[in-house]
What we know:
This protein has about 160 residues and is an alpha+beta fold. Helix content is about 40%, strand content about 30%. The protein has one domain (about 10-65, about 75-155). It has 2 helices and 6 strands. Strands 1, 2, 3, 4, 5 and 6 form a 6-stranded antiparallel β-sheet that branches. The protein is elongated and about 95 Å long. About 15% of the residues are buried. The model has no long low-confidence stretch (mean pLDDT about 85).
Amino acid sequence: MNLLNKKGEGYVFPCVMIVIVCFILSVLIYFICTVSMIRNIKENCKTVFDSYITKQSIEIYNSVKQGNDDISYLDQEEFLTDFCRFCTLESKSGLLYNYDSERNLNYYMTTPYISFIEASSLKMKVTFTLYVPIRFNGAWITTAVIPVEIKSSFMERY
């Protein structure tokens, strides 16, 4: 009793190969989209951070004109507000979340921390950890953890 039709056996291998190639392509496209999203987040943070440093340089210059030479204080809340507004982030329980138009989570991150690279200068860096969910067929599989450090400085030009 032969239940398998011999005429259809020639199509099994190509069908399996097509499914495997499609799976590999979908993983590759997902990886490329995720890397692109991470690069976009870094560029957005760099833009906001450069703007923040420019604002700080103006405040320091005005302070120096008044005879005060103190630049040790950083207004982290100002940067955080601008960053959340520019990147459409929502702050909840110490983390920043980004959602798509259907309220699905795109990524979340720790609160960015600004610090000086060099004392008494406008060479600063911002550090945070980015968490990107890895999904397959709509189900959350794992989370990619990406530490991010962005440096920026204000250099005098004569």
